[in-house]
Amino acid sequence: MRLRHLKIVLIPVVLVITLMTFCGCFDIDDVIVDLGLYQRNTKANTKFTVVVRETAGVTVDGDSVKEVASGQKAVFKVSIDENNYVYLGNTADASYNSKDKTLTVSRVQSPMTIDFILVDKSELYCVNTYSNVSSGYISFVQGSSLMLEPEKVTVQVTVPSGYIFQGWTVGEYLDNGGKLVGTDPVYSFTPEDRRVDLYANLASESQYRITYDANGGSIKNFSGEQYTIRGTFSTMFSMQQTLNENNSGVKFERPGYTAIGYSTEKTTDYRDYNSVNDIEGFSNMGGVCQVPSSGSLTLNVVWAENTAESDFEVQSVTYTDVYSEGGVEGSGKITKSGCIITRCTVRSDTVVIPETINGQTVIGIKSGAFNGNVLQKIVIPKTVLRIESDAFTGSYRLREVVFFDSLQYVSNSSFPNSVQTVVMNAQRLPVYAGSAEGSFCIKYERVRTLKGKKLIVVSGSSTLNGLNSPQLEENFDNEYSVVNYGTNAGTQMLFYLDVISNYTKPGDIVIHAPEWNSDGPMGGNSIQWRMFRGNNQCYDIFREVNMSEYSNFWGAYQLFQIGGKNGSEIVIGAVTMKGKEYQNSNTGMNLYGDLLGNRYNYNGFSYSSVQGFSESYITSNKRAENLNRVNSRITAKGGTLLFSFGTMLYERLSPGVRNASDYDNFTKQCANALDFPVISNVGTYLFKERYMSNSEWHCTYEGADIRTEELTYDLKKFLNSSGLSDTYETYNTRKSHNSSAYQNGM
């Protein structure tokens, strides 16, 4: 009976064990050992000693020696110093669980001593990877994190949605001063050090970061050699303004040197270059730089080594009519004491004036101080407030001037006409950032950064207020990206055309459509003070042109700085105004450069001074010659320059010239003087009051739409047939969809 009962019990047990073993639920050996069945077939009373030995990197928690019956499990609590050691195995082939920190011998069959096999990480090449979002986004494509000998390792980061990859750094994250070693999500390298800490830097798509490296210098009141700023990308500005000294209190210092800008390249000394413009990725202090799509940019301070103090003669001076640096409300006149340079005796092609000489701050340069000097480049420090007339006029070889907008008093006679490159650094924050006219940098940025074919319309306020850029793009099936380079009739269109020529590519079209009765729009080369107001946020633009081809730069600069009378106009100096931040500017523009706001019909025009046509508008003051020179630069780059006209109030014309003959005659005079095509007739762009806003040149929104269609027609006709001999009558009857009031009201 007992045997039968035992069989009845064992048969189901065996069946269950067999089934569970087949399903992978149990290890049959473990089950047998746990049930004690194994012992029934061995020496049941035999026990063996199991020892786990502690060594460097191994700690046994609790008993390290255990007496275990034959066939039973032995379990020990063991900790491994994983920060400094790598576990490779043990001499008993026992199972080690790093999570539970347990070592298990599943079946003891004899006495044993267990040693852990570890490798000191200091003897291995170890690559540790980190991410400021999650290390789970990093994987090894080639190689591994540990190796006995250096071998190629390839890591890859998977960029999560909503983030951009800013690059790989070693040592630390970017924000903590890590060294940037790669910007591609896949990075390959062979470790040179035993331990490499590699960081994947991820940031929100809307964020950018710029790291400024002191590049051999230091940052005042800051312990590190790098300073990082973060900001949010703007749909308006593709570029960001670089640091100036009044921004965040950051001041770069280096004994015996002067900071003159920033570079994407680690330059050592400005004197190593023929020109500061030759430095890779150079940006003025307070200029604009383009942050790449990664959202990460490192800029290095560019240093110029100071000329020895012994090469200057100075005398003490006190100014009582200078203004507080950085901008103040009201007049803000203060008294400033220091020294004025009376003579420079150095025989060198580069002179870098120190901020202090003989313990005194250099605040002025006296007339004749550099007469007879052979210098070609001069760096004027930010401490200088006044440069007297004829201070450099005797330096006939002078080609490049680096200075700061802390300079207040200077005149056209302070420098010779030979100066070609002017590098203007910002000492203060922009003061016209809140005005539309102070946001010409939108246009400058767009010209510099657009990748495809560009269609750029250059003019004064008649285009600023008279172009529908999105409509123009659509009219050409988005083949071109439009830039509305409409500015102000008081600035030089020649200057902007010159700048644009530097960025022209094959297929680009530039249309010059000036306010035809003014010197600046029609090709004059005299710089006006509004140029500085308009480019207050992008001083870089002034080094884009050969300044020896222009006049009145220094006179216009002083008027912009400290104000004064410009004919009957009273100008308020920028140095007396409180600065505003670049990124927070309220421009009243769209990203194309079109002016937005209240542009509706205004019936308050005054016609007391009537206007006629004159050939001198295009021929005097070398205007046509200047425009033809720029045309050669644009065509040399593969671009096309065309001539049209700005919109003007019809009633502003003298009644005697409101006819097709006068329109045709003036159009032909322009065509005869220019080396590039005139694609429009001036009469087509004379609009009646109902289409004009608050000026004789400014269109309403309806007027801008009509003007855009007219310009589209002119350009398409040129591109299709190059028909340049059309009369006004031909232009005037070409479009039937315009209102009869518009067509008949020319």
What does this structure look like?
- The chain has 746 residues and is an alpha/beta fold.
- Among the domains are: 1-37; 124-205, no CATH class; 208-305, no CATH class; 437-537 and 582-744, SGNH hydrolase (Rossmann fold).
- 18% of the residues lie in helices and 28% in strands.
- Helix 5 (469-475) runs parallel beside helix 12 and helix 6 (493-501) runs parallel beside helix 10 (623-636).
By CATH, the superfamily of the domain at 437-537 and 582-744 comes out as SGNH hydrolase
The helix/strand class is: alpha/beta
Low-confidence stretches: 1-26, 37-42, 579-586, 733-746
Q: Given this structure, which CATH class of the domain at 437-537 and 582-744 is correct?
A: Alpha Beta
The CATH topology label of the domain at 437-537 and 582-744 is Rossmann fold
The profile of the biggest β sheet is:
5 strands, mixed
Shape: elongated
In percent, how much strand structure appears in the residues?
25-35%
Q: Looking across the biggest beta sheet, what order are the strands in?
A: 12-10-17-14-15
Kindly report the average pLDDT value: 85
Please compute the radius of gyration using only Cα atoms. Answer: 38 Å
**Approximate helicity band:** 10-25%
Enumerate how many helices there are, as a single number: 14
End-to-end Cα distance: 127 Å
CATH architecture identity of the domain at 437-537 and 582-744: 3-Layer(aba) Sandwich
**Total number of β-strand segments?**
42
